[in-house]
Fold:
Amino acid sequence: MIYDAIIIGAGPAGGMAARQISKKGYEVLVIDKKKVVGVPVQCAEGITHFTLDDTGLKVDEDWVKKRIKGIKVILSSGKFFYAKESGYSINRAKFDQWMMNKALDDGCKLLTNTRARGIIKKRDIWNIKTNAGELKGRILIGADGPASNVAKWLDLLKSREYLKAVQYKFDAEDIDYPGEDWFYIYYSKSFQGGYGWVFPRGNEYNIGVGGPGSVKGLLHQFCKSLNIDVSKRKIINAGIIPFDYKLSALTKETAMIVGDAAGMTNPVSGGGIHAALASGRISGETAVKALETENLSVIPEYEKLIKKEPYLDPILLKCAKYLMKWDDDDWNFLGEILDGRDQSALTIFSGFPKMLKHPKYFARSRELLLIRKAMRINQKYGW
Structure:
């Protein structure tokens, strides 16, 4: 059988793309190397309300763990500021399964425990070699995550850098933490260019560290600083977070690369669900247009549409690289400016009085302006 579209990867990007195409009546196949969609989880499991609105999704209580007011950023000085974008602590595995089930309801087919081993195009048809045999499709969507093979096989990947992340889950009864309504992000030199997080989830907590180097030891130190007994952890999650991916293009002939596979994760926050859903939607809509018009040459339009969105804005990566080099003095200076307010309060006028006290930052005003621009993008992007 020749499918209208084959999608490699059943995460949010692949599930969303599958929904867009299958609901129009086209034959869609999704393959995923995991035995169970979404398992194991490799995510801190947070999503904004704006993300759902932007991608046309509605909340389902089955995957909501807790409603969250936004993010509270905590610095080594004890000062803090907010990113007040409301959202949800979610069960990521159930969320991925919910997305995929929506596509299945529309007629999509799913093969789990199926690993792609190579691709080749013959007579306008993609031939995907897998452990389940050869599969054929007219359109190919690579939604195979941070270590994407599809991008490599298409010869689109030039280079990629990623962060490492490790997270422990604790039962709430084993955690004495003074807050439940926010996601808490910690920045300090002790994270060696990375960051820590505490995500309340009702009956449990996700506590983790992400960064460019070895992070397991940093997570132990972080838990110790919070007076948390590491031995009481019940689950360990680990994975990689796209940081600086360079692809020559996001499309090749009738193939598209989406979500983490394209490095669309926000390099400032490490959040990737919004970009995954949005790029999955756009790729699916592009595929539908190509199929409806019987003109597969429109597939490259996907890249043009993506570049109108904030997901690959170079300002975000520049900002993230600045922040990775910051020491406690830098973070605490930002804390002095914002001091308990929302990130939107960062302006030249709010920063000027603090710069008079710390004149070395006058020479870094361009850096601070770029960070302000990145924060404005993040206000739309979400975390």
The domain at 162-241 is CATH 3.30.9.10 (D-Amino Acid Oxidase; Chain A, domain 2). The longest helix spans residues 273-293. The mean pLDDT is 94.
